[in-house]
Design a protein that fits this description.
This protein has 280 residues and is of the alpha/beta class. Helix content is 38%, strand content 19%. Strands 1-2-5-6-9-10-11-12 form an 8-stranded parallel β-barrel, surrounded by 6 helices.
Length: 280
């Protein structure tokens, strides 16, 4: 069995300081957290951007600042990590959602192959035109897409975009379970998804909120390639106890070791996922 890839989703679009003081917001805070998570065992860091008020933004200059400060901090600390920049931002124009990817050419980016009614409160929108353009960008810039699967129909969407040439195989699937409006965070969802994985695919899992631990354990029992943790998905270490990203990474590493898995380095992750270059 391959080494276990730990991915840290540091801040997301919606985790606010009012919910937890530990979420990194500014570029400097994000850079510092990247280093801490890499030292704790994360092979991948998944990054969103916030504006000066702490709100979600897809502004290219903010992504550039975050990326430059984070890579500089990693060099100074002597750590390596795969950078995965988000493309999620459905209220922003397509061009804005792609601009930082074309400029920075990160090793990975998120690819959400469909739309859902997120928590039955708003539409998490990923239109076909955007998905086609994102797929083209990933191929042209040699960026590995992380296919965030929230709902059952997204598996069919991936197959469609592979067939049409907008996604290259083998694909890396990130099962995102436990969002109201999507698939629940339990083994029933894995039982649905796993038989549909094309041969040669890799997959990781995360459970949102209270499903976080259950999904990690289910993923390990089913032989996942990776676990995704972090304050984007879950802010608690245990009931009522707020976590840091570093603590969530460290716990995931310990769970992996208990399950008999060796924890992947960033270079291991590149080999497992077929990433052919680094930011160095």
């Amino acid at each position: 069995m391959s080494k276990l890839i730990i991915s840290a989703c540091l801040l997301g679009a919606g985790t606010m300081r009012s919910a937890t003081p530990y979420v990194p917001i500014t570029p400097d805070e994000i850079a510092e957290d990247v280093v801490r998570c890499a030292k704790a065992g994360a092979a991948i860091v998944h990054i969103h951007a916030r504006d000066d008020e702490g709100k979600n933004t897809m502004a290219t200059d903010r992504f550039v600042e975050i990326y430059d400060k984070s890579t500089a901090a990693c060099r100074k600390a002597g750590v390596d990590v795969v950078f995965n920049l988000t493309s999620s931002g459905s209220k922003f124009p397509i061009e804005m959602r792609l601009a930082h990817l074309k400029l920075l050419k990160p090793e990975m980016c998120s690819y959400d192959p469909g739309s859902i009614n997120w928590a039955n409160s708003y539409v998490f929108l990923n239109e076909p035109k955007f998905l086609e353009e994102l797929g083209k960008t990933c191929i042209e810039e040699n960026i590995k897409p992380e296919l965030e699967i929230f709902d059952g129909g997204m598996m069919g969407n991936v197959a469609y975009y592979v067939k049409k040439g907008f996604l290259k195989t083998p694909c890396h699937y990130q099962f995102m379970l436990g969002v109201s409006g999507g698939m629940p965070g339990n083994i029933d969802s894995l039982a649905y998804f796993l038989p549909k994985l094309p041969e040669g695919s890799t997959w990781s899992i995360s459970g949102i909120g209270h499903t976080h631990m259950a999904c990690m354990l289910a993923g390990l029992s089913a032989g996942c390639n990776g676990l995704r943790v972090g304050l984007e998905d879950n802010i608690y270490l245990s009931k009522g106890v707020l976590a840091t990203n570093e603590q969530l990474v460290a716990r995931a590493c310990e769970l992996g070791k208990l399950a008999g898995r060796e924890i992947a380095t960033a270079e291991d992750a590149r080999e497992i996922l077929g990433i052919t270059r680094s930011w160095h």
